[in-house]
Amino acid sequence: MKKQLIFCALILFIPLVVFSQKRLQTFTKRAYMTKQKLSDEQLRKLLTKEQYYVTRENGTEPPFKNAYWDNKEAGIYVDIISGVPLFSSEDKYDSGTGWPSFSKPLNKDEIVEREDRSLFLKRTEVRSKSSDSHLGHVFSDPQSPTKRRYCINSAALRFIPLDELEKEGYGDLVKLFKKNDAKESIK
Fold first, then answer.
1. Catalytic annotation on 151?
2. So what's the pLDDT on residue 15?
3. pTM for this prediction
4. How far apart are CA 136 and CA 175, in angstroms?
5. Neighbours of 100 (CB within 10 A)
6. Three-state secondary-structure class, residue 117
7. DSSP code for 37
8. What is the C-alpha separation between 75 and 173, in angstroms, rounded?
């Protein structure tokens, strides 16, 4: 009987999670198009607990246990709240840290860097200018082409594959990708 109750609860819970994420994607896309600001109450309803914790409470997700740390697909990473394009797979590299790492943002004007003295360390926090959400931190990194590593939480991002950029309203960014990447991703 207990197993049946758990099974029924899961059957009811899974569609709610899927619906919530689909609604968030639609809202994120619309927010990007209209520059709409969301209230804290709206964000609590739209974001998962982890997304809210990372973006609004300056949290950090676990390394190697997040959505995009090993994603090698061509595409862009947008702000989970505003939908503003922040990073490209063209600038993503494996830093060995367990978080998505980028050598540079798509547009430095969409990123705000602040001194962060939490955890008894002096670091540079990275925030999204459009939503004022915590994204992660930027560090010096000799293996990065720019000598900087933007270490970003997956929970603060939504990935849009190259072959879906047009459909999602980001068609103007297709030009950022090498022709070989575009052909391989569309196959």
1. yes
2. 52
3. 0.79
4. 27
5. 28
6. coil
7. P
8. 9
- Are the beta carbons of 99 and 153 closer than 8 angstroms? yes
Residue 152 class from Cβ within 10 Å (0-12 exposed, 13-18 middle, 19+ buried)? buried
**Catalytic-role residue among 111, 135, 151, 156:** 151
Fill in the DSSP letter of residue 152.
E
At residue 121, the pLDDT reads 83
* Whether residue 117 has pLDDT greater than 70: yes
Question: Which residues on neighbouring strands pair with residue 114, listed in sequence order?
Answer: 125
Question: What mean pLDDT comes out for the span 85-105?
Answer: 97
Domain 2-186 = CATH 3.40.1390.20: no
3-state SS record for 55-88? HHCCCCCCCCCCCCCCCCCCEEEEECCCCCEEEE
pLDDT at 169: 94
